[in-house]
Specification:
Helix content: over 70%
Strand content: under 5%
Number of strands: 0
Order of helices and strands: HHHHHHHHHHH
Radius of gyration: 20 Å
Distance between the termini: 68 Å
Length: 199
């Protein structure tokens, strides 16, 4: 009987971890990581540290779960790029809207602290750009072949890679007084306008 109940317990454990990461996300964005340890985690959740440790081994465990959730949400823009029932312009603008919404609230302080204090987790965030570039390359190829876009695939990809690398530099975002969401959304929408075939 105990073995039969195990999958349900695992599902409940996962659901609690997901929920708590959603609740903790704005706190990590506001306060960063240096000043937000497990004492603050327990306080933010309204739980004892003993209870928190039943679900998470450490702050890094929380961050790993949180980042996995955010990257999973962010990658959902790919489905919109592949929606052949829509025009290329609509597919692109919808994808930008979805992607922008899913990275909303990610603060420069959080990115800077993640890069400094958790380099292995930061590498996951940094490497996400290559997944996104792969999705975009396929979309650009299709749009160019259909005559909906004007330009060269190589130029599209190089400009994307340059901006993605810049925007994953927290110091750059701080210097420009902008957020990851604002800067990426502005760039992608401008990029779409420049790619569209005229006449």
């Amino acid at each position: 009987m105990g073995r039969q109940a195990q999958p349900k317990n695992i599902d409940l454990l996962h659901a609690k971890r997901v929920l708590w990461c959603q609740q903790l996300f704005p706190h990590f964005q506001k306060y960063g990581l240096k000043a937000f340890g497990m004492d603050q985690v327990a306080l933010a959740l309204g739980k004892s540290k003993t209870t928190v440790y039943k679900y998470f081994k450490s702050r890094e465990d929380i961050l790993e779960q949180m980042i996995g959730q955010k990257l999973g949400e962010a990658s959902s823009f790919q489905a919109e790029l592949s929606n052949k029932d829509l025009s290329f312009e609509k597919r692109y603008s919808n994808a930008v809207s979805i992607f922008s919404q899913n990275i909303k609230g990610i603060s420069n302080l959080f990115l800077k602290d993640l890069k400094k204090f958790h380099p292995v987790l930061w590498e996951q965030v940094f490497n996400f750009q290559f997944l996104a570039l792969g999705f975009l390359e396929e979309f650009y190829r299709e749009g160019l072949a259909a005559g909906s876009f004007e330009g060269e695939l190589k130029s599209f990809l190089i400009s994307d890679q340059i901006i993605f690398s810049a925007l994953l530099n927290p110091d750059f975002l701080i210097d420009q007084k902008t957020t990851l969401q604002e800067a990426l959304q502005d760039y992608l929408l401008l990029k779409c306008f420049g790619m569209l075939a005229r006449g």
